[in-house]
Amino acid sequence: MTMSKSMPVTGHKPLLVLKIGGSMIDELESIFLKSVEELRDRYQFVIVHGAGPSISSELKERKIDAPFIHGLRRTTKPAMEVVETVLGEVKNRELADRFTEEVMKAVGIRGCDGVISAEFLDFSSYGYVGGTPRIETGLLKEPLERSFLPVVSPLARTGNGEIVNVNADTAAAGIAKALKADKLIFVTDVPGVMEGDRIIPHLSSADIRQLIEKETIHGGMIPKVRAAEEALSETLREAVIVSGKEPMSVNGEWKGTFITKEEKGMFL
Ligand SMILES: Nc1ncnc2c1ncn2[C@@H]1O[C@H](COP(=O)(O)OP(=O)(O)O)[C@@H](O)[C@H]1O
Ligand SMILES: [Mg+2]
């Protein structure tokens, strides 16, 4: 059988990339994990995670200054040591263990160990922060083929072998693209993109532009919707923003906000 171009690189099942936000990593509800487990027979999964709030509290504890500039953490060498430990070790292992206990056997992978490469975004302004990530899929396909769940921390390696921190939303989008994933799912601490009390069910590129302009979409939601848009393609036709406190789908019906490629505004 010839493999169609739209099939995921690993063959058989369609693949879902789940980005678990740092805001949610310590608060994932078992009912959410149960909904992932229920989809195990139909899909393969790759997890990418953040650790923002845990990194911030550890930096504070150690009195290391790392201010945010244009939404990115200025990461000096001592700050990067904290990022490597908290993101690449502690939180990565905790999350892999949680998935192993409640969903399926998982394997923690630091992105910088052969999966993600990136160059310094702008060393003098941001320090150890990587720009556009490039993805090598081999070390993700291996566990997938053995029915393990890869849990990836968004650390990247530069051409010179240094480790840099990459935005987790962007890294997840890069991985979804490289693996020709079916869906990119952002698991966060809100039930979707909200307008007041209402969950917006669907967003097109035109809607996103307008909602950012109106500041309905702001802060941490901006990199998420931008990464979603950037990742969409002929194969990856939709991204979803869901809460980690509820099931992400019920009887085949997805929760949250869908982002698709249509230029035409369907919401506004
Ligand atoms: N329109 C919006 N709808 C929902 N959340 C929004 C919106 N605009 C901004 N946000 C903010 O985005 C946050 C999620 O992004 P972030 O804190 O970076 O989470 P994560 O750790 O998942 O990346 C929400 O908690 C909320 O404060
Ligand atoms: Mg965020």
Could you characterize what this model shows?
- The chain has one domain: Acetylglutamate kinase-like (Carbamate kinase), CATH 3.40.1160.10.
- Residues 1-6 have low confidence and may be disordered.
- The strands form six sheets. Strands 5-8-2-1-11-15-18-14 form an eight-stranded mixed sheet, with helices on both faces. The protein has a two-stranded antiparallel sheet with strand order 3-4.
- Helices cover 33% and strands 23% of the residues.
- It is built from eight helices and 18 strands.
- Helix 2 packs across helix 3 (77-102) and helix 6 runs parallel beside helix 8 (221-231).
- With 268 residues, the protein is α/β, with parallel strands linked by helices.
- The chain binds adenosine-5'-diphosphate and magnesium ion.
- Magnesium ion is lined by residues 21, 50, 52, 220.
List keywords for this structure.
268 residues, Carbamate kinase, 8 helices, alpha/beta, eight-stranded mixed β-sheet, two-stranded antiparallel sheet, binds magnesium ion, disordered N terminus, AceGlu_kinase-like_sf, binds adenosine-5'-diphosphate
Query: What is the element string, with H for helices and E for strands?
Result: EHEHEEHEEHEHEEEHEEEEHHEEEE
Count, helices: 8
Shape: globular
Number of domains: 1
The second-level CATH architecture is: 3-Layer(aba) Sandwich
Small molecules bound in the structure, each named once: adenosine-5'-diphosphate, magnesium ion
Largest sheet data = 8 strands, mixed
Side by side, the strands of the main sheet go 5-8-2-1-11-15-18-14
* DSSP strand tally: 18
CATH topology: Carbamate kinase
Please state the CA-atom Rg, rounded to the nearest Å: 18 Å
Average residue-wise pLDDT: 93
**How much helix, percentage-wise, in residues?**
25-40%
At the fourth level of CATH, the homologous superfamily is Acetylglutamate kinase-like
Quote the beta fraction: 15-25%
**Which residues sit in consecutive blocks of at least 5 with pLDDT less than 50?**
1-6
Distance between the termini: 44 Å
What structural class results from the helix and strand content?
Answer: alpha/beta
- Supply the CATH class: Alpha Beta
